UniProtKB/TrEMBL annotation:
Gene encoding the protein: Ankrd17
The entry's keywords: ANK repeat, Repeat
Upper classification of the organism: Eukaryota, Sar, Alveolata, Dinophyceae, Suessiales
Intervals holding ANK repeats: 7-39, 40-72, 73-105, 106-138, 139-171, 172-204, 205-237, 238-270
Protein name (record): Ankrd17 protein
Membrane-spanning residues: none
InterPro entries xrefs: Ankyrin_rpt (IPR002110), Ankyrin_rpt-contain_sf (IPR036770)
Domain of life: Eukaryota
Length: 301
């Protein structure tokens, strides 16, 4: 009964994954081992939780299956259910006192996986159960940073309402606001600014949200940041400003907005070049003319 197949899965794991509640009940009555790990280390409870088979999860928990068992990646049944957005199963496991903040090998918790995949209802449940909203995975990512990566605005809103730390830093030292600006996520940027995110935070390369928006040509996000009075003249590790990036990239509307907002047109990067030099090198005549009109003393190539 407990003999595994070539993939190391037992009959109980297969029945649990496939949603065959009757078979699961028979196997449990016959004494099948609930804790044997199958392919990738999944137990019957993990397989049922991930696949969304509530009745089978209830059967296994009633038989005292290990609610916090971990697979080959150290993921738990709660992490598996949260990642797949299995709301009822997550609720059941929380009621059964599953450990909310266990982390897998990547440092991910159930809350992080739900946030990453945009499962707002699961995130709400976990927050109500006081899951740690500011735990950091590898590279420093939090649930809020994971929600920002894929523009999950409602998830981010829930986390902010729960007072998640907006200034934690993840990949490349990015904050949630820098991540939103890089992705051209207007609503998320607006939400973070309204919540008081540091608009002048700099990542490992000393890029700000405004620099990232200017570099990528994200006009409306750049406008939001300027309206929020983001510092127009901060320089990154190479001395580049938002205006230099806009000029170099040919982003005319952003360059115009920056100049109109009073950005310093004469600031030079570490190579001694200002915005006009880069606009000239790119042969962007519209930006060249604008910068020459407003900065007649600046030198071009």
């Amino acid at each position: 009964m407990d003999l595994p197949d070539g993939a190391r899965n037992t009959a109980l794991v297969y029945a649990s994954e496939s949603g065959h509640a009757g078979c699961v009940e028979l196997l449990l009555e016959a004494g099948a081992n609930k804790e044997l790990h199958g392919q990738q280390g999944s137990t019957a409870l993990m397989a049922a939780a991930e696949s969304g088979h509530l009745a089978i999860v209830q059967l296994l928990l009633a038989e005292d299956a290990n609610i916090d068992s971990q697979d080959s990646f150290a993921s738990t049944p709660l992490i598996c259910a949260a990642e797949e957005g299995q709301v009822q199963i997550v609720r059941l496991m929380l009621e059964a006192k599953a450990e909310k903040d266990l982390q897998n090998f990547m440092g991910h918790t159930a809350l992080m996986r739900a946030a990453y995949n945009g499962h707002a209802d699961v995130v709400q449940l976990l927050l109500e159960s006081l899951a740690d909203k500011d735990l950091q995975a590898r590279h420093g990512n939090t649930a809020l940073l994971f929600s920002a990566r894929d523009d999950h605005v409602e998830v981010a809103r829930l986390l902010l309402e729960a007072a998640a730390d907006m200034e934690r830093r993840g990949d490349r030292g990015n904050t949630a606001l820098i991540t939103a600006a890089e992705g051209d996520f207007f609503q998320l940027t607006e939400l973070l600014l309204a919540a008081g995110a540091n608009k002048n935070a700099q990542n490992e390369a000393r890029n700000t949200a405004l620099i990232c928006a200017a570099d990528r040509g994200h006009v409306e996000v750049a406008r939001l940041l300027l309206e929020a009075r983001a510092d127009k003249d901060l320089q990154n590790q190479y001395g580049s400003t938002a205006l230099i990036f806009a000029a170099h990239g040919g982003h005319q509307e952003i360059a115009q907005m920056l100049v109109a907002a009073g950005a310093d047109k004469l600031l030079k990067d570490n190579f001694g070049h200002d915005a006009l030099v880069y606009a000239s090198a790119s042969n962007d005549l519209a930006i060249v003319e604008m910068l020459e009109e407003m900065a007649p003393g600046s030198a071009a190539i």
